[in-house]
């Protein structure tokens, strides 16, 4: 496959396998070795670069999705003779030790500053939470970012233009008919009708690490990420529609989601770190049907439905119907998950997403819980609750819901807590996870009353 | 005299090349025609290798495939004891142990070859824990699984216990700890036309790699050249293992006639490289009612993994730090490193001391609990002072700052007030504060520094001075610190002094980059070499001008005044080269009897106290470090910003080890965390606010400007302070790290919370 990209302002070409990680294209095919590989699976941030203005892990972007994009790497900031202010601040403040995380750390800082020119310390910490550093304890890095801002670094930013916008990948003869990168939904559905055995590629954050870890490489691939109709959040009457390739990052930035679906925003923000959030999609998170995924949990509590599309038309179903069993989804041959529809939460309703991982950022859930509640005159009118990470698939806790609905809010704290304790049935570490579950349910109801 | 360079925070030498992505790490180097190498690791922890099943449909002529019998030279990786084979011959003693090597012209072919070969192994019962090893579930090393053993006795233990009002016993454990240097291990070997071999890669100790190659291949030392590439973190993890990788790529390269590189994948690195020794420590202490220690009996056991590698010296240091910073008249310490079917445990920042210090520090907290005293007061009651004796018989002749750092940390953290306040805490989120005290002996144990023969070369190339030491910069900043020390001693600007990455064809052997020795000991030798530069230039000017005296940074001669730089330029201009050596002067180590394991274990110690504050969420059993107050006495901070960075980074590794860095051996003998999504190190969000104060009394008589070791010190006492903080918050006594959320939950459950 021949691709063109704008890399640091220059059009560059590479002839590579469609699923080759962009990291390797940059390092090995284009000789840009400033971007480092620390893990190759989106867990360390050493390969952080900017793609079309957003921070991404280059190890998790397949080349097919980099075609026609605008790439900004550490080499684009400055060189030895003429480093930019952020690079100089990193050196001056002692933020550079072994130097291996440094290029990624600097690019993550740059991405933050392009979005938030004067970030708070908390914003800096969150923005860098997917970039591991084992040397500095991070403090010097915060100071470096702060110093660059104080010295007017953000005023030096110039708009970058993509000189090969939307330029399509040119597939080789051998790849023709196996790799597809459509630019419209109808085109995508037609491809799928003809090639129902395609593996669907959304953000790539699961597929690329899987390939690296020897879990098999798909023979045929349909890249959906570049289909504009599959991105975006819209209000349609009394539902909010989220298109399947909408990323966690787009959800976090969506004013509609922030207003109506704060718990979904919370779940998106707690899922991965910024570079992953900018690629991981809501559709991918659901279609993978994994027990540890964050978004299905809150979407179950929000009573979301999904809409599937094929060349023949669309159909909708509940989330539970969409995920019949572990790692299985209800898409039939030629069908894709097109969007998720969420009833607009009632005025005055409450929603929460709780996640207990093994650390604070970039971590899988040990326990995840989501609640949605409507009350009327102090009585629980509607209550939906879902739990993740404790069963092969996220599940609704119907018994707990039933125990609570119709009861006065003031009387349900212990009841709900005990019901949830009894209802969840984690296979590993059961007493620990049951206890966290009951504690968090108690917290939800106590906070409601406070 | 006031320093001009030392004590300032100049920009680090390698800063810009790292911040621009230009620093050459081994994976960044492009050597034409370089093959890719790989090692075939054992799938089982213990077994007999019967041979290999090779798929005949694969074209084996395209690749090089080597087993133990194909190795050039002898099959061992030279270290302390040469028991670690390059490749297993018959007996396999740990999962991932190298069984065979493959190299291919490209990655695709390599992958094909790896798929087409399978070792045939008869599995045996594995030894997977210290207990398994002690009870001899199987004998896997020597006659009794004991790799090394030490005993220290001082005073009369029985008498000490008889004098006590209370006997306090406890058992403490620490878990595997993985370095997670951001750059994985990697090496490249390049065969040269003249029959020599160049090896370049990520390493801490170029001369260890060089020695391993020379010893195994049986070559003349000059035939092997080892160069350090930019190195993305080490923390001890690149002390011994690079020697093994070097021998793998060297053998593949000699067999193929091609340059061969082997860059570890992160998962292979997690599974197959050395980690911090797991430990079990049992302590029995006798104390008076007022908290005075009368006797201490310690049994300290390290899980060494399958081979000796660094265990002997890790055990020595752990043993010599096992009593902590306390005065004990009657003491008995018995320590062992035992073999298990695990990847050989190796060096990791602190080198055994964090393990034994965790135990003694927790035990001091336990004593405090039982006596109803504050942990700070029990420590103050027993804290070492100048003139006291250590269990190994060392008299502390130099000033001791244990009490100073402890009191200062308590003051800066507002320890007493917070402790009282937090004890009253109720509600969902509870705060707690814990304090700990630790020390670290600078440089090698015993007479190691004298025996090392550390040598440093300073040359002048017409424009700049180059300090050649085999100390590697792996992030800690030694390639900045050595030029600073030299610039100060040479009275020249920092800008004209550099420290190139070590290359054994140029760089003399100044020893490995370990043991917190590079500033204190090698830095001293840099200073000595610089003195010799001044003397040499003085002689040169004297010969030229009849007379030359050096004062205030200038040479005065009858024909005028010359700066050192001017003199060096003149001398270089005349001779065409200028090189001067320096060595360690006598008196830098003390009297040490290795056989009796007694004497001056370390010439001087650095001291550190840390007060760590945490928040415990009693709903989720999550512990968040909130604030870390650290006071360290290191003699002199040569580069204050780098020093602070070392303290932050070292303590954060200790905090990670305390609660989230969780790695065990599975019942099948595999490392439980095979990816960075399972082995979790602290992110920005898991990091406390820092408050660091450095004490610089400069009383050390060895290090330049009174500087002592720093690198390992911040790792030494973080874990006990963290676990003590959790105890202060929720009232449960943790005896092991990592204290994961689940373990904390169990402790709370046992307590009935």
UniProtKB/TrEMBL annotation, chain A:
FAD-binding PCMH-type domain mapped to chain residues: 172-347
GO molecular function terms listed in the Swiss-Prot or TrEMBL record: 2 iron, 2 sulfur cluster binding; FAD binding; iron ion binding; oxidoreductase activity
Keyword annotations of the record: FAD, Flavoprotein, Iron, Metal-binding, Oxidoreductase
InterPro entries, per database record: 2Fe-2S-bd, 2Fe-2S-bd_dom_sf, 2Fe-2S_ferredoxin-like_sf, 2Fe-2S_ferredoxin-type, 2Fe2S_fd_BS, Ald_Oxase/xanthine_DH-like, Beta-grasp_dom_sf, CO_DH_flav_C
Residue ranges annotated for the 2Fe-2S ferredoxin-type domain, each copy included: 1-77
Name listed for the protein in its UniProt record: Molybdopterin dehydrogenase FAD-binding protein
Species for this entry: Thermanaerovibrio acidaminovorans (strain ATCC 49978 / DSM 6589 / Su883)
From TrEMBL, chain B:
Domain Aldehyde oxidase/xanthine dehydrogenase a/b hammerhead: 20-125
Gene3D superfamilies: Aldehyde oxidase/xanthine dehydrogenase, a/b hammerhead, Aldehyde oxidase/xanthine dehydrogenase, molybdopterin binding domain
Residues making up the signal peptide according to the UniProt record: none
Organism encoding this protein: Thermanaerovibrio acidaminovorans (strain ATCC 49978 / DSM 6589 / Su883)
Single GO MF descriptor: oxidoreductase activity
Protein name: Aldehyde oxidase and xanthine dehydrogenase molybdopterin binding protein
Superkingdom, taxonomy of origin: Bacteria
């Amino acid at each position: 496959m021949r691709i063109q990209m704008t890399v640091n302002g220059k059009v560059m070409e590479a002839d590579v396998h469609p699923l080759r990680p962009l990291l390797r294209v940059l390092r090995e095919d284009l000789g840009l070795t400033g971007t480092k590989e620390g893990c190759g699976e989106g867990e360390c941030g050493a390969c952080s670069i900017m793609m079309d203005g957003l921070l991404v892990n280059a190890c998790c972007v397949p080349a097919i999705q980099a075609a026609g994009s605008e790439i900004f790497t550490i080499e684009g900031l400055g060189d030895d003779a003429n480093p930019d202010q952020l690079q100089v601040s990193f050196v001056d403040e002692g933020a550079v030790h072994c130097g291996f995380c440094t290029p990624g750390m600097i690019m993550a800082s740059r991405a933050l500053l392009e979005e938030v020119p004067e970030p708070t310390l908390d914003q800096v910490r969150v923005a860098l939470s997917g970039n591991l550093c084992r040397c500095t304890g991070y403090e010097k890095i915060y100071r470096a970012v702060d110093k660059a801002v104080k010295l007017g670094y953000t005023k030096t930013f110039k708009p970058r233009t993509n000189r090969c916008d939307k330029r399509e990948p040119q597939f080789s003869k051998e790849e023709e008919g196996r790799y597809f990168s459509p630019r419209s939904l109808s085109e995508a559905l037609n491809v799928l009708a003809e090639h129902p055995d395609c593996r669907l590629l959304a953000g790539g954050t699961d597929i690329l690490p899987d390939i690296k870890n020897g879990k098999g490489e798909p023979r045929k691939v349909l890249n959906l990420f570049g289909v504009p109709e599959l991105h975006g959040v819209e209000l349609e009457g009394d539902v909010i529609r989220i298109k399947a390739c909408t990323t966690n990052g787009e959800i976090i930035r969506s004013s509609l989601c922030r207003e109506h679906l704060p718990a979904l925003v919370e779940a998106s923000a707690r899922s991965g770190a910024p570079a992953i959030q900018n690629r991981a999609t809501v559709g991918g998170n659901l279609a993978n049907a994994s027990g540890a995924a964050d978004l299905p949990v809150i979407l179950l509590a929000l009573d979301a439905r999904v809409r599937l599309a094929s060349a023949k038309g669309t159909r909708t179903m509940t989330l539970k119907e969409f995920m019949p069993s572990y790692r299985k989804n209800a898409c039939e041959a030629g069908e894709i998950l097109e969007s998720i529809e969420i009833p607009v939460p009632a005025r005055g309703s409450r929603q929460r997403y709780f996640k207990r991982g093994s650390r604070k950022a970039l971590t899988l859930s040990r326990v995840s819980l989501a609640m949605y509640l409507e009350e009327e005159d102090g009585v629980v009118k509607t209550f939906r609750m879902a739990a993740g990470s404790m069963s092969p698939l996220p599940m609704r806790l119907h018994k707990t819901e039933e125990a609570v609905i119709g009861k006065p809010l003031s009387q349900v704290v212990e009841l709900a807590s005990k019901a949830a304790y009894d209802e969840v049935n984690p296979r590993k570490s059961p007493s620990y996870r049951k206890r966290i579950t009951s504690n968090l349910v108690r917290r939800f109801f106590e906070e409601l009353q406070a | 005299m006031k320093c001009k360079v030392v004590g300032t925070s100049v920009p680090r030498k390698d800063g810009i090349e790292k911040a621009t992505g230009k620093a050459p790490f081994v994976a960044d180097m492009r050597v034409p025609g370089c093959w890719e190498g790989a090692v075939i690791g054992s799938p089982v922890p213990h077994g007999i290798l019967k041979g290999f099943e090779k798929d005949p449909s694969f074209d084996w002529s395209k690749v090089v495939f080597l087993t133990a019998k194909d190795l050039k030279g002898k099959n061992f990786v030279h270290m302390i004891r040469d028991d670690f084979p390059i490749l297993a011959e018959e007996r396999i003693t740990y999962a991932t142990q190298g069984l065979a090597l493959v190299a291919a012209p490209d990655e695709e072919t390599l992958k094909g070859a790896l798929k087409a070969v399978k070792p045939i192994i008869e599995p045996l019962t594995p030894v997977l824990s210290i207990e398994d090893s002690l009870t001899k579930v199987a004998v896997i090393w020597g006659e009794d699984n004991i790799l090394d053993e030490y005993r220290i006795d001082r005073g009369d233990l029985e008498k000490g216990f008889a004098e006590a009002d209370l006997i306090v016993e406890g058992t403490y454990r620490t878990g595997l700890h993985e370095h997670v240097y951001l750059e994985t291990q990697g090496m490249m070997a390049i065969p040269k036309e003249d029959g020599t071999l160049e090896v370049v890669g990520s390493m801490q100790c170029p001369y260890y790699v060089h020695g391993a190659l020379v010893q195994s291949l049986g070559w003349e030392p000059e035939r092997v050249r080892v160069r350090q590439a930019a190195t993305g973190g080490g923390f001890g993890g690149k002390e011994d293992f690079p020697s093994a990788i070097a021998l793998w790529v060297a053998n593949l390269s000699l067999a193929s006639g091609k340059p061969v590189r082997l860059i570890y994948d992160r998962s292979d690195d997690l599974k197959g490289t050395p980690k911090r020794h797991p430990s079990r420590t049992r302590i029995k202490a006798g104390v008076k009612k007022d908290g005075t220690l009368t006797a201490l009996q310690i049994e300290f056991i390290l899980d060494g993994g399958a081979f000796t590698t660094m265990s002997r010296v890790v055990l020595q240091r752990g043993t010599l730090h096992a009593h902590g910073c306390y005065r004990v008249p009657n003491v008995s310490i018995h320590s062992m490193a035992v073999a298990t079917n695990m990847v050989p445990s190796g060096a990791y920042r602190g080198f055994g001391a964090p393990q034994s210090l965790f135990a003694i520090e927790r035990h001091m907290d336990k004593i405090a609990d039982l006596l109803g005293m504050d942990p700070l007061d029990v420590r103050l009651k027993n804290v070492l002072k100048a003139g006291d004796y250590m269990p190994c018989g060392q008299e502390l002749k130099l000033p001791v700052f244990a009490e100073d750092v402890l009191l200062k940390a308590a003051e800066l953290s507002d320890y007493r007030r917070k402790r009282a306040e937090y004890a009253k805490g109720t509600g969902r989120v509870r705060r707690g504060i814990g304090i700990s005290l630790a020390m670290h002996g600078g440089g090698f144990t015993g007479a190691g520094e004298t025996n090392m023969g550390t040598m440093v070369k300073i040359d002048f190339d017409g424009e700049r001075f180059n300090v050649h030491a085999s100390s590697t910069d792996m992030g800690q900043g030694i390639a900045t610190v050595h030029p600073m020390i030299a610039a100060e001693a040479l009275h020249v600007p920092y800008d004209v002094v550099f420290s190139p990455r070590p290359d054994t064809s140029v760089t003399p052997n100044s020893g490995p980059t370990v043991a917190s020795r590079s500033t204190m000991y090698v830095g001293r030798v840099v200073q000595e070499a610089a003195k010799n530069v001044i003397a040499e230039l003085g002689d040169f000017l004297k010969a030229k001008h009849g007379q030359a005296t050096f004062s205030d940074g200038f040479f005065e001669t009858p024909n005028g005044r010359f700066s050192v730089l001017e003199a060096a330029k003149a001398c270089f201009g005349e001779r065409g080269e200028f090189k001067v050596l320096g060595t360690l002067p006598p008196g830098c180590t003390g009297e040490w009897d290795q056989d009796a394991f007694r004497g001056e274990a370390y010439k001087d110690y650095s001291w550190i106290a840390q007060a760590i504050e945490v928040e415990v969420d009693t709903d989720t059993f999550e512990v968040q470090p909130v604030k870390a107050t650290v006071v360290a006495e290191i003699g002199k901070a040569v580069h204050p910003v780098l020093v602070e960075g070392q303290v932050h980074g070292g303590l954060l590794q200790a905090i990670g080890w305390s609660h989230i860095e969780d790695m065990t051996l599975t019942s099948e003998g595999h490392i439980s965390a095979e990816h960075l999504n399972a082995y979790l190190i602290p992110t920005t969000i898991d990091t406390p606010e820092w408050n660091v104060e450095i004490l610089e009394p400069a009383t050390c008589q060895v290090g330049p400007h009174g500087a002592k070791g720093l690198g390992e010190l911040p790792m030494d006492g973080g874990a006990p302070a963290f676990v003590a903080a959790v105890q202060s918050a929720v009232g449960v006594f943790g005896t092991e790290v990592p204290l994961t959320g689940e373990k904390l939950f169990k402790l709370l459950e046992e307590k009935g919370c």
